[in-house]
Design a protein that fits this description.
Layout: H1 2-6, E1 10-15, E2 26-33, E3 41-51, E4 58-59, H2 61-70, E5 76-81, E6 84-85, H3 87-95, E7 100-103, H4 105-119, H5 123-136, H6 147-152
Parallel strand pairs: 3-5, 4-6, 5-7
Antiparallel strand pairs: 1-2, 2-3
Length: 162
Protein backbone atom coordinates (compact mmCIF):
# COMPACT_ATOMS: atom_id res chain seq x y z
CA UNK A 1 0.00 0.00 0.00
CA UNK A 2 2.93 2.32 0.52
CA UNK A 3 3.69 2.06 -3.19
CA UNK A 4 0.26 3.46 -4.08
CA UNK A 5 0.82 6.39 -1.71
CA UNK A 6 4.31 7.09 -3.09
CA UNK A 7 2.96 7.27 -6.63
CA UNK A 8 2.11 5.41 -9.83
CA UNK A 9 5.76 4.86 -10.77
CA UNK A 10 6.53 3.01 -7.55
CA UNK A 11 6.66 -0.75 -7.89
CA UNK A 12 6.84 -2.98 -4.86
CA UNK A 13 9.48 -5.67 -5.13
CA UNK A 14 9.77 -7.90 -2.06
CA UNK A 15 9.50 -8.10 1.71
CA UNK A 16 12.06 -9.31 4.23
CA UNK A 17 11.55 -12.10 6.74
CA UNK A 18 9.85 -11.08 9.96
CA UNK A 19 12.90 -11.12 12.25
CA UNK A 20 16.48 -10.16 11.55
CA UNK A 21 15.39 -8.04 8.61
CA UNK A 22 18.35 -5.65 8.77
CA UNK A 23 16.30 -2.61 9.73
CA UNK A 24 13.77 -2.62 6.90
CA UNK A 25 10.70 -4.65 6.00
CA UNK A 26 10.12 -4.07 2.30
CA UNK A 27 11.83 -2.86 -0.86
CA UNK A 28 10.29 -0.92 -3.75
CA UNK A 29 11.60 0.80 -6.85
CA UNK A 30 10.50 4.30 -7.82
CA UNK A 31 11.11 5.28 -11.44
CA UNK A 32 11.59 9.02 -11.88
CA UNK A 33 11.49 10.67 -15.30
CA UNK A 34 10.12 9.51 -18.65
CA UNK A 35 8.86 5.92 -18.26
CA UNK A 36 9.11 5.37 -22.03
CA UNK A 37 12.79 6.26 -22.33
CA UNK A 38 15.50 4.05 -20.88
CA UNK A 39 17.98 6.95 -20.66
CA UNK A 40 15.29 9.50 -19.73
CA UNK A 41 14.50 7.94 -16.37
CA UNK A 42 16.28 6.82 -13.27
CA UNK A 43 15.25 4.24 -10.67
CA UNK A 44 15.40 5.00 -6.96
CA UNK A 45 15.66 2.37 -4.26
CA UNK A 46 12.92 2.65 -1.66
CA UNK A 47 13.43 0.97 1.72
CA UNK A 48 10.37 0.57 3.89
CA UNK A 49 9.76 -0.11 7.54
CA UNK A 50 6.34 -1.12 8.87
CA UNK A 51 5.28 -1.08 12.51
CA UNK A 52 1.94 -2.36 13.73
CA UNK A 53 1.44 -0.60 17.05
CA UNK A 54 -1.35 0.02 19.53
CA UNK A 55 -3.66 2.88 18.67
CA UNK A 56 -2.29 5.39 21.18
CA UNK A 57 1.37 4.46 20.75
CA UNK A 58 3.75 6.80 18.95
CA UNK A 59 6.71 5.90 16.77
CA UNK A 60 9.86 7.51 18.18
CA UNK A 61 12.78 9.17 16.48
CA UNK A 62 14.91 6.13 17.35
CA UNK A 63 12.61 3.90 15.28
CA UNK A 64 12.95 6.20 12.28
CA UNK A 65 16.72 6.61 12.82
CA UNK A 66 17.17 2.85 12.40
CA UNK A 67 15.64 3.05 8.93
CA UNK A 68 17.59 6.22 8.06
CA UNK A 69 20.83 4.46 9.04
CA UNK A 70 20.18 1.87 6.29
CA UNK A 71 19.68 4.45 3.53
CA UNK A 72 22.45 5.08 1.06
CA UNK A 73 22.89 8.19 -1.06
CA UNK A 74 19.93 8.65 -3.40
CA UNK A 75 17.71 6.13 -1.61
CA UNK A 76 14.29 6.95 -0.18
CA UNK A 77 12.85 5.64 3.08
CA UNK A 78 9.20 4.99 3.85
CA UNK A 79 7.99 4.36 7.38
CA UNK A 80 4.45 2.98 7.72
CA UNK A 81 2.69 2.57 11.06
CA UNK A 82 -0.79 1.74 12.25
CA UNK A 83 -0.24 4.34 14.99
CA UNK A 84 1.16 7.89 14.94
CA UNK A 85 4.58 9.57 15.03
CA UNK A 86 5.74 11.41 18.12
CA UNK A 87 6.08 15.16 17.69
CA UNK A 88 9.86 15.00 18.33
CA UNK A 89 10.19 12.31 15.64
CA UNK A 90 8.32 14.46 13.12
CA UNK A 91 10.46 17.48 13.97
CA UNK A 92 13.64 15.43 13.63
CA UNK A 93 12.64 14.16 10.16
CA UNK A 94 11.78 17.70 9.03
CA UNK A 95 14.78 19.49 10.54
CA UNK A 96 17.34 16.89 9.49
CA UNK A 97 15.74 16.68 6.04
CA UNK A 98 15.70 12.89 6.12
CA UNK A 99 14.59 11.41 2.80
CA UNK A 100 11.76 9.57 4.55
CA UNK A 101 8.04 9.52 3.89
CA UNK A 102 5.95 9.00 7.03
CA UNK A 103 2.63 7.18 6.63
CA UNK A 104 0.53 7.06 9.79
CA UNK A 105 -2.41 4.84 10.67
CA UNK A 106 -5.01 7.37 9.58
CA UNK A 107 -3.43 7.73 6.12
CA UNK A 108 -3.09 3.94 5.89
CA UNK A 109 -6.80 3.53 6.70
CA UNK A 110 -7.75 6.08 4.00
CA UNK A 111 -5.64 4.17 1.46
CA UNK A 112 -7.30 0.89 2.43
CA UNK A 113 -10.74 2.48 2.02
CA UNK A 114 -9.75 3.89 -1.37
CA UNK A 115 -8.54 0.48 -2.56
CA UNK A 116 -11.66 -1.28 -1.27
CA UNK A 117 -13.89 1.22 -3.05
CA UNK A 118 -12.00 1.38 -6.36
CA UNK A 119 -11.49 -2.39 -6.61
CA UNK A 120 -14.94 -3.24 -5.22
CA UNK A 121 -13.56 -5.64 -2.65
CA UNK A 122 -14.47 -6.55 0.88
CA UNK A 123 -11.77 -5.69 3.43
CA UNK A 124 -11.24 -9.41 4.07
CA UNK A 125 -10.62 -10.04 0.35
CA UNK A 126 -8.11 -7.21 0.12
CA UNK A 127 -6.25 -8.34 3.23
CA UNK A 128 -6.15 -11.96 2.00
CA UNK A 129 -4.77 -10.81 -1.36
CA UNK A 130 -2.12 -8.67 0.30
CA UNK A 131 -1.20 -11.46 2.71
CA UNK A 132 -0.77 -13.84 -0.24
CA UNK A 133 1.47 -11.31 -2.01
CA UNK A 134 3.62 -10.94 1.10
CA UNK A 135 3.89 -14.69 1.62
CA UNK A 136 5.04 -15.21 -1.97
CA UNK A 137 7.49 -12.27 -2.08
CA UNK A 138 9.75 -12.85 0.92
CA UNK A 139 13.33 -12.54 -0.32
CA UNK A 140 16.74 -12.22 1.38
CA UNK A 141 18.06 -9.93 -1.36
CA UNK A 142 20.19 -6.81 -1.01
CA UNK A 143 18.10 -3.69 -1.75
CA UNK A 144 20.32 -2.76 -4.71
CA UNK A 145 18.95 -5.81 -6.55
CA UNK A 146 15.74 -3.83 -7.09
CA UNK A 147 17.64 -1.98 -9.84
CA UNK A 148 18.17 -5.20 -11.83
CA UNK A 149 14.75 -4.96 -13.48
CA UNK A 150 15.30 -1.35 -14.53
CA UNK A 151 18.67 -2.24 -16.00
CA UNK A 152 18.07 -5.59 -17.61
CA UNK A 153 14.35 -5.69 -18.42
CA UNK A 154 13.62 -8.56 -16.02
CA UNK A 155 11.56 -8.77 -12.90
CA UNK A 156 13.15 -9.12 -9.47
CA UNK A 157 13.38 -12.86 -9.86
CA UNK A 158 15.10 -12.93 -13.26
CA UNK A 159 12.02 -13.43 -15.47
CA UNK A 160 12.02 -11.46 -18.73
CA UNK A 161 9.11 -9.16 -19.54
CA UNK A 162 9.98 -8.59 -23.17
Amino acid sequence: MASSIIGPNCERAWVTKRSGDGGFDFVCRLDVGDPGALLGRTPIIVLGQAKCLQRHTAVSGLDIARLVARLQRGWLGVFVTTAVYSRPAQIEVAEDKYPVILINGQRLARELQKMITSERLELRELLEREDHWYQTHVQPLHPSRVLDQATFGTDFFGNSHE
